[in-house]
Every structure is written in C-alpha cells, then in structure tokens.
C-alpha cells in the first residue's frame, strides 16, 4: 500500500529519481529492523513456554559475547564431558567485564548442549529477574533436554535448588570462565 501510494505520488518524477529514492530508503529501513530484532533478542523471557520458543528461534546467536566453539562441559550439562557453548546477553557481558559482585536484573545466559554426535540436544538458561540474587531466588533457572518438546523441562522456576546450589560457587551464580573463550 505504502509503496503503491509512493509510486503514484512519484509518478511525475523521473524513473531515475524514483530508483534513487528506493535505494536510499531501503538500507535504512533494513538496518533499523535489524537493530530492533537484536535488541529484542537481548530480552530473554523468564517463562517456560516463551523461553522455549525464544530458544528455538536461535535469537541468542546474535549476542556479541559467545564462546567461539563448543567445549566439553565441566558440569552435568547434560552429562559431564558432553559439548556445550555459552552465549551472554549484553547486560551480563558488561557486568562480568566490570567485575560487579551482582549482575543487574535482565542479565541472561544461554547454554547450548550437544549430544556425543554433535547434535543440539537442548539448552540450559539463567535469567536474572531481580537486582538481588537472594541465594538464587533472583535467578530464573531453566533447562530442557529437547529442541522440540518443552513438556518436561529439567527446571523452569526461580531459585531451583539443584541449579543454584552448584552455581553458588560462581561469580553471582555464573560459572563459565570470563572472558569467554
Ligand atoms: C554439579 C554442578 C552443576 C549443576 C547442578 C548445574 N550446573 Fe549449570 N553449570 C555448571 C558448570 C561447571 C558450568 C560452566 C560451563 C560448563 O562447564 O558447562 C555451568 C554452566 C551453566 C550455564 C552457563 C552460564 C554459567 O554459569 O557458566 C547455565 C545457563 C547453567 N549452567 C544452567 C544450569 C541450570 C538451569 C541448572 C539446573 C537445572 C544447572 N545449571 C545445574 C555446573 C552445574
């Protein structure tokens, strides 16, 4: 509709001027759509169904801070020794870089978990939902061992003892080496 109206208005202009207008407008629109998409990707939902859809979309793969390759997990994700790859959103990346004691609300990390054959088998996620970590209550913990079925996540709640217990040893519950390798 918009384009049709534009063409009618531009009807009196030369074809070259119209082509130029399109060329000039095109990249700007595409760029701002990209920016909107990447800032939406930074907000990781602390809700099982929404989070699963988010993970399936792969939006976190646009994060600046990510491990450059898969490496064997030092934790039980999904089994000690199977490959994982970690992605930090900008808020968590900045907070880890600054050496903050506690990460701000909205900090989030996604960990991809792979099978021995190298297939993506699920995700482990931590999202900070409050400024205070409160022994892990301020973090939403989520893990699922499937990429197609979210009916039985291993965890999907704030303060899950299994996750928070082991992660308490980290820097405000984050265990990965930083900077990421
Ligand atoms: C016995 C210890 C242990 C338990 C239990 C555990 N993890 Fe982890 N987790 C780790 C270790 C170690 C890492 C660091 C990266 C690696 O080696 O996999 C890690 C990494 C992560 C990461 C990437 C960010 C980070 O902290 O490095 C997320 C997200 C995560 N775990 C979520 C969870 C969730 C959700 C649970 C509960 C279902 C959980 N973890 C239970 C040991 C554990």
Describe this structure in words.
By secondary structure, the protein is of the alpha+beta class. It folds into 2 domains: 2-41, no CATH class; 48-167, no CATH class. 34% of the residues lie in helices and 20% in strands. The protein contains 5 helices and 7 strands, in the order H-H-H-E-E-E-H-E-E-E-E-H. Strands 1, 2, 3, 4, 5, 6 and 7 form a 7-stranded antiparallel beta sheet that branches. A hairpin with a 5-residue loop joins strand 4 and strand 5. 27% of the residues are buried. The site of heme C (HEC) has 26 residues, from strand 3, strand 4, strand 5, strand 6 and helix 5.
Q: Kindly give the count of domains.
A: 2
Order of helices and strands: HHHEEEHEEEEH
Overall spatial form: globular
Small ligands present:
heme C
- Individual helix count: 5
Outline the low-pLDDT stretches.
Answer: 1-24
Instruction: Kindly state the percentage of residues in helix.
Output: 25-40%
Structural classification: alpha+beta
- Main sheet, how many strands, which sense, barrel? 7 strands, antiparallel
Q: How would you describe the oligomerization state of the chains in this entry?
A: single chain
Question: For the terminal residues, how far apart are their CA atoms?
Answer: 48 Å
Strand content: 15-25%
Strand tally: 7
Mean pLDDT equals 87
- Radius of gyration from CA coordinates: 21 Å
